[in-house]
Here is the input.
Amino acid sequence: MGMIRLGNKPPLTVATGDTVVQAARAIAERNVGAAVVVEGDAVVGVITERDVLRKIVAAGRDPGATLVREIMNSPALSIGVQTSVEDAAALMRKHHIRHLVVTDAAGKLVGMVALRYLLYELMDDMQRNVGDLVGYIMTDGPGG
Here is the structure.
């Protein structure tokens, strides 16, 4: 299985001092499930659609008056670009999360990966393996 593959869009970032409504609008406009929360160049957390739903909507809080820093998940769990898909999926499973921050060797933010894309990659790999096994089984051997 390969390493984490990232799309060509830079990750969505929001600031700790942004309101939740600003973050939610940015998430909706980019059509993603989460944003990386930054202070300057430092990654300090992650805010997800689920955070907005559970910590704001269900709790009856005002998203226009609540700051991202009040509901973000911190610290942000991160992986390096050389992390395998299996290892990333295992980390998500262990921590019951759906998004991981991806950093380069210097620790600089380069992306975010969602669980669904890891699952797609794992399913593609399983399909390739099944195809290989079927091909192996169906091939006539010597004297066949």
